[in-house]
Structures are given as C-alpha cells and as structure tokens.
Amino acid sequence: MNRTTIMSDMLVIENFINGEFVPTNSHIDSFDPSTGSVWAKIPDSDETDINKAVDAAKKAFQKWSSTPVQERSRIMLKIADRLESQLQSFAEQESHDQGKPIWLAKAVDIPRAVHNIRTFATSILHDTNKSSVMDGVDAFNYTIKHPVGVAGLISPWNLPLYLLTFKLAPAIAAGNTVVAKPSEMTSVTAWMLAKIFNECGLPPGVVNLVFGVGPKAGEAIVKHPDIPLVSFTGGTATAKRLRASAAPFCKKLSLELGGKNPAVIFNDADLDKCIPTTVRSSFINQGEICLCTSRIYVQRELYPRFLERFSEETRKLVVGDPKDDKSILGALISKEHLAKVKGYVEVAEKEGATILCGKEDMNLHDKNKQGYFMRPTIVTDVSDDSRLIKEEIFGPVTCVMPFDTEEEVIRRANDVQYGLCATVWTTNASVLHRVSRALQVGTVWANCWLVRDLNMPFGGMKDSGIGREGTTDSMEFFMEQKTVCVKL
After folding, report:
1. pLDDT (0 to 100) of residue 3
2. What is the pLDDT of residue 361?
3. Which of 120, 266, 331, 470 fits a disulfide with 99 by CB distance 3.0 to 4.6 angstroms?
C-alpha cells in the first residue's frame, strides 16, 4: 500500500523496497525551482536503508533472472503503456520538481522514458548468442549470457525519469534486479513510477528505489559488496570519487559524465537550419543537459552574420513560469546552481569578455520572483584558456568564437578534458567526414542535434565517461557472457 501522504500541502516521499513504500525518520527538503519554496520531503536514506534494498533485490534475483524473457517483456510493456497513459500528470510533476517547462516534459522527458522501456522490453526478445566452429580440431564454441546480479543505478536531476529508465529498463530486461537512487533534488516521478510497478505486476524486490544524497545513500550503493555493477550518470568530479570507492570491489562501471560540447560551423553552413538548432542545443532545458552546446566556433567570414542572427533569436526566448506554454526556459534546478552559473558570467566580465545578451528583463510573475531563473547568455571575446571554455557550466551560457581553418578549429575543439559530443555544420561532405573523424567525442551530430537512435552506442571520451549505452551496449553491460567449448 502506498502510504505517501500530503501534510499541509507538503508531499512526503517514501522509499520503495521489496514492493512496499517504507517510511524514514529523516527527510531532505525538495524545492520547487520556479518559486524557491519547499514542496516535498525526500527520505534522507543511509546505509541501513541501502542494505534493506539490497537484501530484497538479492532475494528477488533468482526468480526474476529465471523468468522467461517473454514474461519480463510483457510486464515491461505494460509498465510503458501505463506510464504513457499518465503522461500529463508525470510531465506536470517532472516540471514541478526540476523546473523545466511542462510542455518540454510532455514532448521529451516522459515520451522518452516510455520509449526507453519499450525499446529494451522488445530488444531482449531478439537477442542472440554467438557461435563458431574450429576446423581441424573438431570443436565448436557457443556463448551463454547471464544477468550479473543486483545493479546499482544512480541517476541525475536534469532529465530525471528519462535517464533513470535508460538504466533501469535494460537492467531488468536482462534479468537483473535493481537498487536505484534518483537525485535527491528530483525524486518525485521515480516514486510515481514505483506505484506503476506494483500496478503492473512487477515482482517485489526486482526494483527498489532508495532516495537520498550521494555521500550517504549513493556511497552505500557503490561500496556494497553485493552490488557487482554500478551505472552512474552525473558530474565528472563525483565520478572520480565513485571510481575510488568502487575500486576495491572490482565492480563493472558505466559512467556517463559531463561535457563541454563544441559546435563547429563552417562558412557554407545553412543558417536557416543552423540558427534555430544551435539556439535549442545551447539553451533547451535551461542548458542543463550534458549534451548542450557551450562552445560555438564559427568560421570568420560567417561569424558576423551568425552572431547577429543567433543573438537576435536568443533574445526572443521567453524565460518564465514552467506552467506557461510560452516559456521556452524554466528555472534552474537550485539556488546554489543558479549562483554557480551566474558566477561564470562574472568571471567572463572580469576577464574582459563581452556579454552579448543575457541581462534583459524576464518579466516574472510575482509567484516566480524567488525562483531560480536566468536569461540565456551569449559570451564573446573570450580566450581559449578561460574557465568558460575549459569547465562545464551546465546552464544557459554559451561562448561564440571565430576560427579560420579546419585544422585550427579541430585543435581548439579538442583542447578540453571532456569529449561527450559535438555538432558540425557544413554542406561539404568531405569536410563533414574529416572533422567528424578528428573530433575527440563519443557522438557527432552533423547538421542536426540530439537525433537519437537507441540502437547506436552512446557515451563519452576522456573525462566524459567510461563505457557506452544503447540497445546492444547496455545489454552487454548488464549481462555476463560465458563461452562453452565442445569437443566433438
């Protein structure tokens, strides 16, 4: 029974362990980014709570891992259908929790969560093993795939349900059980999804959700000896601590981390397509997507025209109440994060850079004036060694710089510690392929952005992560392969 309650208009969330909602004594305030007020209480879980969740997942593993894939698929598809039928309510709560416009959650976040579950629920039905014949020795080999065990999943606050389901779906499709910790800043839709798990007949203990902060609940997941693999999406600094904590246990790790993503725009780019896409890639979701464009390199001949049109379109973006369909940008996730992002703009000003736009009035409603809002900001005249070029800002701030040659822009684009994604804009096929090959990133979008085929591998190079995610790559991570050699 779901015992979560509303107390004085305050939502009180409970952990979900072994198919039941379990109360805790200690809670964390969850703020509505659009108003700055507390709207929910989230469990402040610790090692004891994680141990209970792991025990439940271990007990459920034997039965779930031996459940036929057809039955696992059936339950997952039922979950996807139920989630889709509640799209409006999930989108509203995702917006309430994270600050993004409701229309964006309806168009992207919740549909993608549904797509994630359906994709892995169906792909598992078509998974095949490998075999080979060894001529001359009368032997053949074949592989067997096994789920690994209890999967520890730690997901971030920027795309809460979208990214949680991108981990959870392949984990349980492969036959693993799960202990997951969503971000303490955006836990509500994960709790809502737990209710759907029960409604759709997911056996108790297959998915356990434990809410809380990284240093307590997250650390306990990473260090637990009975969790053999951890999938984490979040910041690079946190991932370094995670790797150190996991190292003594030889765990499998999948890390999808930060980005400092360049757009490389050549003189022959189609501006009618490039401008609206680059505005979106720079500022959608308040710039709080690891794939957002934060460095824009424009070939010198095109630079003045691009900058004029890019600035003009950016100034048109409406920042405001996430409930208003006219708002293109909502609120940043927290007061502290807003201060951090604004701090980078202050650094730019001290360095003598030009703030081309970003200080225009937002005309906020009275109820939103204590919210964490910020105008999309364009910075020019910034040096390549500036913190704005080297560090992940993760907000609605992008830097625009001219370049002259192909060789130069490749060098500058690669001269950061991150390597998640890039966009390339040109109508010259040879340039497109040369530059795409040379950029040190996991994904290159050419004349587009964020067009995702889940069958293709996704992940980063350098400080942007370890491993790849996607239908094949995720299933490989969440399964172990055994080779059987038979002598005839």
Report:
1. 41
2. 87
3. 331
End-to-end CA distance of the chain: 56
Active site residue 351: no
For the question of residue 92 being annotated catalytic, the response is no
Give the integer Cα–Cα distance in Å for 335 and 33: 8
Catalytic residue among 14, 94, 219, 256: 256
> Residue 359: which of 370, 76, 351, 348 has the closest Cα?
348
Backbone angles phi, psi at 430, to 5 degrees: -65, -45
Q: pLDDT by residue (tens digit) across 59-89?
A: 999 999 999 999 999 999 999 999 999 999 9
Q: Is the Cβ–Cβ distance between 419 and 261 less than 8 Å?
A: no
Residue type, 107: A
The catalytic position among 14, 184, 290, 469 is 290
Please give the backbone phi and psi of residue 411, each rounded to the nearest 5 degrees, phi first: -60, -45
As to burial, measured by CB atoms within 10 angstroms (0-12 exposed, 13-18 middle, 19+ buried), residue 130 is exposed
Greater confidence, 82 or 1? Answer: 82
Orientation angle between helical segments 69-85 and 87-98, nearest 10 degrees:
80
Give the 3-state secondary structure of residue 154.
strand
Please give the average per-residue pLDDT across 222-248, as a whole number: 95
Q: In the predicted model, is pLDDT for residue 476 greater than 80? A: yes
For the segment 364-392, the average pLDDT, to the nearest whole number, is: 97
Going through 192-321 in order, the beta strands assigned E by DSSP cover: 207-209, 229-233, 252-256, 261-265, 293-299
27 Cβ neighbours under 8 A, 6+ residues apart: 12, 41, 42, 43, 44
405 SS3 class: coil
Q: What is the pLDDT of residues 121-174, one digit of tens each?
A: 999 999 999 999 999 999 999 999 999 999 999 999 999 999 999 999 999 999
Q: Which of 213, 224, 92, 90 is nearest to 157 (CA)?
A: 213
Q: Which residue, 278, 152, 195, is CA-closest to 16? A: 195
DSSP 3-56: --EEETTEEE--EEETTEEE--S-EEEEEETTTTEEEEEEE---HHHHHHHHHH
The C-alpha R_g of the chain, in whole angstroms, comes to 23
Strand-pair partners of 445: 423
pLDDT at 5: 43
